[in-house]
């Protein structure tokens, strides 16, 4: 897909943030994921309710594969904890605890359970007991233009598939709000559009049978490799339990 000058920073490298980044990256937006690397999903012992895996899947493997897929989409990764986001002209400046700064046209906040770095902006916060969420519309937009929230931070259910779906929805919303030409992120058989006398729409791709077989073969090989051995990492314990040990 074509590359755009539009920049996106995703704060948080969990399922919601990575899913959003996958769609913005595949659409050609210059996307950076800033994360501490401690997604809550890594605490899960075995993920048993994610569609497509009848016997469940190791959640750390799922995250590893998603990170790989996002990187293949041209997304860059940066280690860090964002401490402040400020409006700068038509975009934003993000500052990390280590002093690194990032400029972005769009920001997607997907960093459960911390939203304090947004306090300098005119964002609507929603308090539910000890939890603080960010108020968004049906597409993840906040009250600040160009700022979105995805996943649990946007008061979505605390389930992996919900976080993935909402992250994807927010990522597509950013793409549609940007200046990039976009119809759907589809890969279709050769002739699906052109066979009806239509041009292939922006974001779509037609491939012939040989290319389809090559991609399927590459997919099968990658999956065999990924599932050949148990994942080496153990679940990450809840911080309060770890502190007591």
TrEMBL record:
Residues 207-245 are annotated as: Disordered. Residues 212-232 have a biased composition (Basic and acidic residues). InterPro entries: FAD-dep_OxRdtase_2_FAD-bd, FAD/NAD-bd_sf, FAD/NAD-binding_dom, Ferredoxin-NADP_redctase_2. The keyword Flavoprotein applies. GO terms for molecular function: oxidoreductase activity. Keywords: Flavoprotein, Oxidoreductase. Residues 8-39 form the FAD-dependent oxidoreductase 2 FAD-binding domain. It comes from the Archaea. Residues 64-167 form the FAD/NAD(P)-binding domain. This is FAD-dependent oxidoreductase. It comes from Haloarcula salinisoli.
